[in-house]
Design brief:
This protein is mainly beta. Among the domains are: 1-27 and 830-1033, no CATH class; 431-616, no CATH class; 626-733, no CATH class; 743-825. The protein contains five helices and 91 strands. It has an 18-stranded mixed sheet, with helices on one face. It has a 16-stranded mixed sheet with strand order 62-64-66-68-70-72-74-76-78-80-82-84-86-90-89-88. Strands 61-63-65-67-69-71-73-75-77-79-81-83-85-87-91 form a 15-stranded parallel sheet, with no helix packed on it.
Length: 1033
């Protein structure tokens, strides 16, 4: 774009002469490629380069260039200056260079459809002997973030980064990033998502995040670190420098690793055949060296540790944790390094009364609050006592429920706390809970099914309640043993008036399939006030264990015989939602699991997400989840809770499949289809302001074949029942929206979610995630860098202070970024968007949107639809996208791309650059010295005041000059005789004009002066011009 100083400013340089028009156009060089593989070289002036098709190389120089790669796998290098690099279709490489650049792997209007792998490449950046570090890359969302190198640049649609020759720092977010460190001591952290981290040369640190990552150390001495993890990790070397690491349900692979640094929680690190360096960090860790000469680092000094000898090695207790070591040859303390032989001389025998991993101790009797030490949990975190308050915190996470009592009886190694939940998956099917507890009849399930069976025998007693539960299924089952039983109580007032307790549960076992229907089956149960609700199909003969035909009910059970799921269990249940009535006063919940008949082959039960519920139903339900799209959901014979989650949904099933089901999120756009033919008179409904109970009694005998409960406000709704062929369809008219959710955040980072009504949610001081859900919501981010999503409905969203992500979703929304550098997506619908203060990026989405950038240097893209986009204050980049748009730059030096469609463009105040691109556009410069370039069709161009340079491009263009001003000089760069026209407002005839042949751009040209206003026309002569080239009046 034209920069300040290229054209004299009448206010700051009143005596300066107008710029040479020829030089002015050369400073905005337009370079077009072909559909082949082009190499396009820019100039030292401002370049606009279009690669078009093919695999192109675009090279800018020192000015503020705009490079658009187009289709193909392109390489873009802006050079020095504050450049804009846009890759387009294909897998593009954008080179990092000096300046504060905007780099996008896609053209902004194509953001939603981009699926290629685009790369930021810093391998060729200029470094000198004084530089000590390379680039710092920080992702703030999927594909977007900033890079610091001789200025701060912003990027979008970038999946991969290549580092410099020095030490780089790369930090990912929620996407699947690909980081290549290059030479130098790099620090690479993928964050969430399935990332690929490649250290390459020198000594690199690769940090594990959530997700299934691949970490490749490369040459040098490289470290795998769990320092950023929120859960403990289990790492196993299966070769020299290579192996797997498991965090919760995520399995990552690594190679080329010489050292391992654990997390701040309980880790298990197992070396391989090489000489490994294994350090646990904080938490109670287990470190096993394996073959080779292995080393560990203990951060404490030798004087601040207690060292015990064990059968397999050593136990070292310090302020950093209670760690166990085996097969380690060298121990590095903060003040001394000792061999295992030297350490043995200092060690004491391990005390017999300590509860440690692998023992047969039972936590029962005595003081429930007595502290337990050295406990190794089978999954997740260990308990600290029989009555550990953390048990209630993970069971009722975020619910504000205080338990009256907590008591665990069983082996301490048979219970684990799951603050971050647990998931079993094969990559397609996933079963898990968000938070809760795990109880086992032996050990934990591991993360892969590599052995025929696994068994841990704690030698603990059975439980009378579990004896009764298994006896209901097998008369000859006998007693239970190795029981792990958690009992807690709470007062009904803790549920704020709700009269149903809801929780999730699923069960896994290695008994399958050998003992699926035998008296040796492991038994699990969840009792609420004396009733076991952990049953398949609410059948007392099918408790939550692998029993008989229950595994054949669709959706109830999954087989893992082919080792496709990441668990040692050979079979596991689906996730059930259990609903149990709450009684006034004290309520008692008992969760238990035990071996039956013998102690072989282990099983486990996962229970979590406890909360009060408004659902007036009882029993165990399979969960069915819709999406915010238009879903078709097929029900089965198991009782189900269906969450429609928005959209126009169709729910279908036979009568027995629809029976005993609960459906949430029903609206007038939804359809229920009974896949059986019956007279509509057999259908009846009882509806009120909270539920509608649908009953089908085909025989008229009072015994219903199907009873289904819909949740919503049906107080004025009409149910329309129609027989269609061999089915019966049910829709509603007049269902009312849910009442609004009103939430106010605090100072921490929080997730605040609305419902299906018109919600009012205000974030607090942290980096909040706010989701309005359905309905016409009002959402405010407050302070912090917030993620605000409107979803469905006509929403009002405000980012507030901070660098916010604001997404309107569907509906006609009003969006405001507030202060800070915000990223705003309008989504579908006709939206009104204000960027607010700061350097904002706005993608208006589909619909006829209104966008105002506000203060700051904004990037505004109308995308599809007939949009109105205004830059307001600052040096803005404005894109119309498709549709007939109205675009304005506002104050400041703006660059405007009209895009497709017949657009109206006004540059406003400032030295603006305007591109017509496609369509028959009206392009006006406004004040100051503008450059206007028409597009492929017939454009109308008016430079306005100032010394303007005008180029019509293809098509029959009209150049308008009104308000002729003494001393101004305008230039028409590409006038075509017989095609283009010049309109002179206020001039009555051709005879009033004065012409002079002159040289323009080292070629032919004409200078025309009217009332002291000069118009220069390039590429023509006086002899070619006549009255037919002008319009007067």
């Amino acid at each position: 774009m034209i920069q300040k100083g290229m054209i004299p400013d009448a206010e700051t340089q009143p005596d300066a002469k107008p710029a040479d028009p020829a030089a002015l156009v050369r400073q905005q060089q337009v370079v077009n490629g072909t559909d082949g593989n082009d190499t396009l070289n820019g100039s030292s002036d401002v370049d606009l380069m279009f690669g078009n098709g093919g695999n192109d190389l675009l090279l800018g120089l020192s000015a503020n260039d705009i490079l658009l790669g187009g289709a193909g796998n392109d390489t873009l290098d802006g050079g020095d200056g504050n450049d804009g690099l846009f890759g387009g279709d294909g897998s593009d490489t954008l080179l990092i260079s000096a300046g504060s650049d905007t780099l996008a792997g896609y053209l902004l209007e194509d953001a939603a459809s981009d699926s290629s792998i685009d790369t930021l490449d810093a391998s060729a950046v200029s470094l000198d002997i004084l530089d000590t570090s390379g680039i710092t890359v920080t992702y703030t969302g999927v594909g977007e973030g900033s890079v610091d190198y001789d200025g701060t640049s912003r990027f979008f649609g970038i999946e991969a980064v290549v580092g410099t020759l020095l030490g780089d720092v790369m930090t990912g977010a929620a996407g699947n990033e690909i980081f290549s460190g290059g030479l130098g001591n790099d620090t690479l952290s993928g964050g969430a998502g399935n990332d690929l981290l490649q250290g390459e040369g020198e000594n690199d640190t690769l940090l594990l995040g959530s997700g299934a990552d691949t970490l490749v150390g490369g040459t040098g001495s490289d470290t795998l670190s769990g320092a950023s993890l929120g859960s403990g990790m289990s790492l196993v070397f299966d070769g020299v420098g290579s192996g797997r690491v498991t965090v919760e349900s995520d399995v990552s692979e690594f190679s080329g690793i010489e050292a391992v640094q654990g997390s701040d929680l309980a880790d298990t690190l197992t070396g391989g055949s090489g000489s490994d360096n294994l350090s646990g960090g904080l938490g109670n860790d287990v470190i096993i060296g394996g073959a080779g000469s292995d080393t560990t680092t203990v951060s404490a000094s030798l004087l601040d540790t207690t060292i015990y000898s064990t059968d397999s090695g050593f136990r070292i207790v310090s302020d950093d944790g209670d760690d166990s070591f085996a097969g380690i040859e060298t121990y590095i303390f903060s003040d001394v390094t000792l061999s295992s032989t030297e350490l043995a001389q200092l060690a004491s025998p391990e005390p017999e009364d300590t509860i440690t991993d692998g023992g047969t101790d039972t936590v029962d009797g005595g003081d429930p609050g007595e502290t337990l030490t050295g406990v190794r949990s089978p999954v997740g975190d260990a308990i600290s006592s029989r009555s550990d308050p953390a048990i209630g915190e993970v069971l009722f996470a975020g619910g504000g429920v205080t338990l009256s009592s907590i008591d665990y009886v069983g082996a301490p190694e048979a219970i684990g706390l799951l603050p971050d939940g647990h998931v079993i998956t094969d990559g397609t099917i996933s079963v898990g809970i968000e938070n809760g507890v795990f109880l086992s009849s032996g050990g934990g399930p591991g993360s892969e099914n590599t052995s025929g069976s696994f068994t841990v025998n704690h030698g603990t007693a059975g439980n009378a309640l579990l004896d009764a539960a298994v006896a209901g299924a097998f008369d000859d089952a006998g007693g239970t043993n190795d029981a792990a039983v958690l009992t807690f109580t709470f007062d009904s007032s803790e549920l704020d008036g709700l009269t149903t307790l809801s929780f999730n549960v699923f069960f896994g076992s290695d008994e399958f399939p050998e003992f699926a229907d035998s008296s040796f089956v492991d038994i699990a149960a969840v009792y609420v006030n004396g009733v076991n609700y952990a049953l398949f199909n609410n059948d007392p003969g099918q408790p939550l264990a692998i029993v008989g035909e229950s595994i054949n009910t669709a959706g109830n059970f999954f087989s893992n015989g082919g080792d496709t799921f990441d668990t040692e269990y050979d079979g596991f249940s689906t996730l059930l939602t259990v609903l149990a009535p709450v009684q006034d006063g004290t309520n008692t919940v008992v969760i238990g699991i035990a071996d039956t008949g013998d102690s072989a082959y282990d099983s486990g039960i996962f229970v979590g997400n406890l909360a009060g519920s408004e659902i007036q139903a009882t029993g165990s339900f399979v969960n069915v989840f819709g999406t915010d799209e238009d879903d078709i959901l097929y029900l089965n014979i198991a009782p189900q809770i269906v969450d429609l989650a928005g959209g126009r949904d169709t729910i279908t099933g036979d009568l027995d499949e629809v029976d005993n089901d609960v459906i949430y999120g029903w609206g007038d756009n939804d359809l229920l289809i009974y896949r059986e033919s019956f007279d509509v008179s057999a259908f009846s409904v009882v509806a009120n302001a909270t539920t509608a109970v649908l009953t089908v009694d085909t025989n008229g005998d009072g015994v219903a074949e199907a009873v289904t409960t819909l949740y919503g406000n049906f107080s004025v709704a009409e149910f329309v029942v129609t027989q269609v062929g061999n089915t019966v369809e049910v829709v509603t008219v007049g269902t009312l929206p849910d009442p609004p959710v009103v939430l106010t955040g605090g100072a921490d980072d929080e997730t605040l979610r609305g419902g299906s009504g018109g919600d009012l949610i205000q974030g607090g001081g942290g980096d909040d995630v706010i989701d309005g859900g359905e309905g016409d919501d009002r959402l405010g981010g407050g302070a912090g860098n917030d993620d605000i999503e409107g979803d469905f409905g006509e929403d009002q969203l405000g980012g507030g202070p901070g660098n916010d992500l604001v997404d309107g979703g569907d509906g006609n929304d009003a969006l405001g970024g507030g202060t800070g550098d915000d990223l705003i997506y309008g989504g579908a619908g006709t939206d009104t968007i204000g960027g607010g203060d700061g350097d904002d990026s706005v993608l208006a989405g589909s619909g006829n949107d209104i966008v105002n950038g506000g203060a700051g240097n904004d990037l505004l893209d109308g995308m599809s639809g007939d949009d109105t986009v205004g830059g307001s204050f600052g040096h803005d980049e404005v894109y119309g996208g498709s549709g007939d748009d109205s675009l304005g730059g506002g104050a400041g030096r703006d660059t405007i791309h009209a895009g497709e469609g017949n657009d109206i463009v006004g540059g406003g105040e400032g030295d603006d650059v305007i591109y017509g691109v496609a369509g028959s556009n009206f392009l006006a410069g406004g004040g100051r010295n503008d450059l206007i370039v028409g597009g492929h069709d017939a454009d109308t161009i008016n430079g306005g005041t100032g010394n303007d340079t005008l180029a019509g491009g293809a098509g029959e263009d009209l150049f308008i000059f009104n308000g002729l001003r003494v001393g101004e000089v305008d230039t028409i760069d590409d006038f075509t005789i017989g095609e283009d026209l010049i309109r002179l407002v206020g001039v009555q005839s051709f005879s009033a004009l004065s012409f002079e042949n002159t040289e323009i751009y080292e070629g032919a040209g004409v200078t025309m002066t009217i009332a002291g206003h000069t118009i220069m026309i390039a590429g023509v002569t006086m002899a070619q011009l006549d009255a037919d080239d002008f319009l007067f009046g």
